[in-house]
């Protein structure tokens, strides 16, 4: 061929050169781990951004709900005030409830002078039951229920977004009602002593009847009973207080025990005071008086019913409904539980502000006393 054509030759062996920027997986094992760390950090940033966005949305939702609730409550309050202004007191049910004639219709005038009228129990609704039948009083009750539900939802959503957990504010219940079994033990002791007092009273009544022919011994027996009864009341009150201090009961448990002490002490005195006239029948003036039978005292069942009956005035029998309204009792029990939860929720939610208020109050009182 001519000189312009080159002779075909085999290409020389070329060794591939690896660039500095090329990182084969075999020679640099750190690359996958760095890439995985970068991916994880990116996911964390995205997750934080999404969580922050959700939190902003929840805060906006909370503010909107609060504004809407405040607006609605304001409208309801204005409507309630306007209705009460237009309310005619001459035809209202509230006036009939608080009328003196109706409140005193269950009083029986005594034949003796300077003696309070005697109460007569009637089968009727309580004053609060009749009040809750009024529309406006029922509205106030519903407002408290709505406040509790709104506070509960607000706290639950806020705790879930901020802390990831729910704080229902039940710590005051756990702290306040701690050692409740010991409080029940103290209550059982008080109930036992009250039962012994019942039999002690029957024992005195039997002795008084047996000594009816011996006036001096009877008088001594009566004085002994009075001293014993006073000693019992003193020992009952002081012993209950000492038991509460000994077991170092928390506030709610100690308050329950002390209130039961007051209730049982007043119940015992009401029973003794109401049944003493049945025993003191007067002096014996003839043989016919000796033939009179012993006074009939109430049975133990009647005494136990009086202990749990919601009154401090003893009667041998009370007017009762034909059947027990368990549904009404259940809803009243739910009201009590709701009040306890409501107070615990408020104290648990604002305990730091209450603690600060208490510290400032103590500081102010100390500065006031130092003056």
Automatic annotation (TrEMBL):
Subcellular location: Endoplasmic reticulum membrane
Superkingdom assignment: Eukaryota
Biased composition (Basic and acidic residues): 1-10
GO terms classed as biological process: cholesterol metabolic process
Transmembrane domains' residue ranges: 140-162, 182-201, 221-245, 329-350
GO MF, any single term: O-acyltransferase activity
Keywords: Acyltransferase, Endoplasmic reticulum, Membrane, Transferase, Transmembrane, Transmembrane helix
Disordered, as annotated region: 1-31
Main location: endoplasmic reticulum
Keyword Repeat attached: no
Protein name, as recorded: Uncharacterized protein
Organism: Phlebotomus papatasi
Species classification: Eukaryota, Metazoa, Ecdysozoa, Arthropoda, Hexapoda
